[in-house]
Amino acid sequence: MPLVKQGRITTDLFVHVADGAELPGDGAILISAARFLEDPEAILKRAGKAGVIWPNSRAVDDLVPYLDRLAAVALVFPTFRDGRAYSQARLLRERHGYEGELRAIGQILRDQFVFMSRAGFDAFEVKKDADADAFAETMKRYSVFYQPTGDGRVTALNRRMQLRHSESAGQ
Amino acid sequence: MTSPLEQKKIRITGPSVVTANRTWDGAVVYRTADRGWSTALADAAIVGTSDDARALLAEGVADDVGAVGAYIAPVEVKEGGVIKPGNLREHIRSKGLTIDLLPA
Amino acid sequence: MYAYDELDRTLINERVSEFRDQVKRRLSGELTEDEFKILRLQNGVYLQLHAYMFRVAIPYGTLSSKQLRRLAHVARRYDRGYGHFTTRQNIQFNWIKLAELPDALAELADVGIHAMQTSGNNMRNVTSDQWAGVAPGEVEDPRIWSEILRQHTTLHPEFSFLPRKFKIAITASEHDRAAIKIHDIGLRLHKNADGETGFEVLVGGGLGRTPFIAKTIKPFVHGRDILSYVEAILRVYNQYGRRDNIYKARIKILVHELGIEKFAREVEEEWKLMGDVGLTLDHSAIEEVRSRFSYPAYEKLPHMPDELKQAAADPLFERWRKNSVAPHKVQGYSIVTLSLKPVGGPPGDATADQMDAVADLADKYSFGEIRVGHEQNLALPHVAKRDLPQLWRALDRLGLATPNVNLVTDIIACPGLDYCSLANARSIPIAQELTRRFANHDTADMIGRLHINISGCINACGHHHVGHIGILGVEKNGEEFYQITIGGRADENAQMGVLIGPAVPYAEVADVIEDIVEAYLALRDRPEELFVDTVKRLGVEPFKERVYATR
């Protein structure tokens, strides 16, 4: 399953470690929320970056105390019709100021890339190779956005107001 | 008519066909004996046992590019082998609207 | 009318390109039907009994003549020459080919029409009063706010995969023509004590398997805060709405399970935490949207022109005028409803030729503007009174002057088993038979206001729960049966109808409705007492007795 990060297909430096499996001594790991919360300090102190897979049925509040020390948070789309993680993503980025990698995992198709990016995701475990290949192209699909989110894209309303301002200034 | 798309257990009680809608235009189609689809009910492969129905349905479902939402529908086989839809829903799918489109 | 600017046009063109790519991937097999289904639904494409059905949005029910002509063109070029206006200010085409859909969408996009979010588990077409902007006594034009919400809800990055569909309706009049109490969010525009514009926000209304009337969650949300407040509701719903059971996934169930107080607290808390996230609408932002609505340059016209005085001698004209013409906020003008309920016709259908002709009449008599109402009729919103006689003659020739608006034959009906893959029973032929039974307009006039709503299954697209008489198709041993309810209503006093007894077979429905109407005529205490009021006064018993005594 290809990982798209910063707009291109890249090698995943994080190792998914299953709940029962032993943690590697160093290197970046991605573990479940349950395992992380058993002993967060131990995980965060270990050599190597830590990332947590956070379920979409649990409020992100419990993760907030650790955000500045986490290298990655992975939010889950069990099917692409389950959109809870979009809210979680925006809360992490926009309300709690999370700046690390925000990864989308699960059933990820190209048709969600723009939505996900706008919600704050910057890494995508894409289900199909063809979709991963089409990432850059797909992200160019839209140039107009109606809603403000934390992604910094200028909204249609802002563009209209700027236009109006410059028109009235030019008169 | 309980939507046949919610069919769970496959148990047929009489002659049946597999029907679906053709992907590119949505037209009503019936699974044929030569592993294709036809818009004519007369061309449909008729099955008489639940096992055969299951097999025909599996074959239809597998052709996801050709047709959508395959399910088993009852038919009546009349004298001379003429096939008729087995319920009102299938009658409407096969014959079209029961209504006048323009005010009478 | 709202005029799209370059940005709106760009966005819908980008959506057409995206959908073209999605269709291409589906037809090549790159997308499975399971994957594609959600994507096509997000753009208004269902698969029905005979073909794909394509639902096109008519935001807040406003169309230009140019747009209506393009809808007629799509009906002719890509479909079978007609379309069906729905209860949510959309139009549906019944025979669209998937492979041709991207071209149809592109042609619609040329005139600023789209099908975004007309189905699927997202925020649907924002609906409003079909008389918005022209009804006397309105607080202000609710379409400004509808358009603000339309933009905000279009391709929303957080709420495009909700637990279930989500419908918003707005009214700004005392009399609610937008049925806001049966919507997921209902917004009633009003002014607070300081004269500021805001909304009473209602939440959790809806029909279907588990009908609920919406409850007030906040009596006044200031206009500038409406986007953030709606966003807070949606965020609570997106996270806590049920996803385990499709029948329990609507926000009405969440509101019911939590209770309105607890739900309101959750929303309030989220709203406070949200803080300033760029959603506050300052005056200039609202004015920016308002400035792109244009209003006709009305003439100064007499209240009672000579043309109208003369035409009053014609009883047929007078009957139509009294029935289908409503007061306008500007003197000398009227709002004219065009009945899409001809005797014997499918409710809400219009042919491409009718659409073209209505577009021409709109150009000639209504400043090029047409409205679509949730009762599945059209309206010309700015007709000079002096033009009414001419307009009537033209409409009559087109079969669009049936004087039955709000009467017993002005039936709301879903497509039913003739078209719909979810239906259990047919709706349209029941409606057609009823319009024949009550074809005599004198009788219909004498009966007075009476709304019959018909749904072909429990999903209630025909709003049967809130019909004065509701008819619900069910299946019993492979046969069509119909449950009858009475006393429902969809307006500001919205309530669910009450079942009168066991379901009756297809062939008996029209007889039963006739019995109910006859019972009403015998029971009403004066001719002005409406059917619903008689039911309210007496309950269902006397009606039940009449219907089942001989059955």
From TrEMBL, chain A:
It holds the Pfam family DUF934. It comes from the Bacteria. InterPro entries: UCP030820. This is Oxidoreductase. It comes from Bradyrhizobium lablabi.
From TrEMBL, chain B:
InterPro entries: DUF2849. This is DUF2849 domain-containing protein.
From TrEMBL, chain C:
Residues 52-110, 346-396 form the Nitrite/Sulfite reductase ferredoxin-like domain. The keyword Iron applies. Pfam families: NIR_SIR, NIR_SIR_ferr. It comes from the Bacteria. Signal peptide: none annotated. GO terms for molecular function: 4 iron, 4 sulfur cluster binding; heme binding; metal ion binding; oxidoreductase activity. The keyword 4Fe-4S applies. Keywords: 4Fe-4S, Heme, Iron, Iron-sulfur, Metal-binding, Oxidoreductase. SUPFAM superfamilies: Nitrite and sulphite reductase 4Fe-4S domain-like (SSF56014), Nitrite/Sulfite reductase N-terminal domain-like (SSF55124). Residues 119-272, 408-547 form the Nitrite/sulphite reductase 4Fe-4S domain. This is Sulfite reductase. It comes from Bradyrhizobium lablabi.
